[in-house]
């Protein structure tokens, strides 16, 4: 089976987590970080989840899952993490019936999507998946990427976004702009960013843009 890679914008989207244990807690924290509206259905919660509920960040339905609980919530994603196998089975069945996507680690044959290991540096995001073949190997790769791509990559991406807006305002059209980015962004720039030399890296990109024939609006060299 070939998985389709996809980054979802979950801001304001309804998501449901079945279960209130440690796994559920990790799912909830990641969903909140992505701006999702999260409902947890479980008869008990970890201390961490209780704090999120008390802070108004999570809606808690204090109950074992039973049919009909998902329908009024209309979730986009349903994470099934309960230790109650019957509750998990019922939640999966209802989610699929209503067209929600299911993540159920204990039932991989019924799982619609997996959540890859990730390295996040602001908007700079790297994900690693082994298709469930070896989570330990995915973790090892993530640790290596964390060392190879430090926090400064997120900061540099923000600078590139400013440059991109400058370039978009210049003549040439999308194909010409694509050509200049291919010329301006080099492996040397990546090496400078990795070493923490962001000003020098930005200067290299600006010079590359000018050499390609489009000068940024502020005329900086």
From TrEMBL:
The EC number(s) this enzyme carries: 1.3.1.76
Residue span(s) of domain Sirohaem synthase dimerisation: 154-206
UniProt key word NAD: yes
Xref: Gene3D superfamilies: NAD(P)-binding Rossmann-like Domain (3.40.50.720), SirC, precorrin-2 dehydrogenase, C-terminal helical domain-like (1.10.8.610)
InterPro entries: Met8-like, NAD(P)-bd_dom_sf, SirC_C, Sirohaem_synthase_central, Sirohaem_synthase_dimer_dom, Sirohaem_synthase_N
Record's keyword annotation contains Coiled coil: no
GO function terms (MF aspect): ferrochelatase activity; precorrin-2 dehydrogenase activity
Pathway entry: Porphyrin-containing compound metabolism; siroheme biosynthesis; sirohydrochlorin from precorrin-2: step 1/1
Identification of the protein by name: precorrin-2 dehydrogenase
């Amino acid at each position: 089976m070939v998985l389709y890679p996809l980054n979802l914008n979950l801001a304001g989207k309804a998501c449901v987590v079945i279960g209130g244990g440690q796994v559920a807690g990790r799912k909830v924290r990641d969903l909140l970080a992505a701006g999702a509206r999260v409902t947890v259905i479980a008869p008990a919660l970890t201390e961490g989840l209780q704090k999120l509920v008390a802070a108004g960040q999570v809606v808690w339905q204090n109950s074992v899952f039973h049919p009909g609980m998902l329908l009024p919530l209309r979730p986009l994603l349903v994470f099934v993490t309960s230790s109650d196998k019957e509750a998990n089975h019922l939640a999966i069945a209802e989610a699929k019936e209503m067209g929600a996507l299911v993540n159920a680690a204990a039932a991989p044959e019924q799982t619609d999507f997996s959540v890859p290991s990730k390295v996040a540096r602001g908007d700079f995001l790297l994900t690693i998946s082994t298709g469930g073949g070896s989570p330990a190997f995915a973790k090892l790769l993530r640790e290596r990427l964390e060392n190879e791509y430090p926090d400064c990559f997120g900061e540099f991406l923000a600078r590139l976004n400013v440059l991109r807006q400058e370039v978009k305002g210049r003549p040439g059209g999308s194909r010409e702009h694509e050509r200049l980015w291919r010329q301006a962004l080099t492996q040397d720039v990546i090496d400078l960013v990795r070493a923490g030399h962001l000003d020098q890296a930005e200067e290299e990109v600006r010079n590359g843009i000018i050499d390609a024939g489009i000068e940024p609006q502020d005329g900086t060299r």
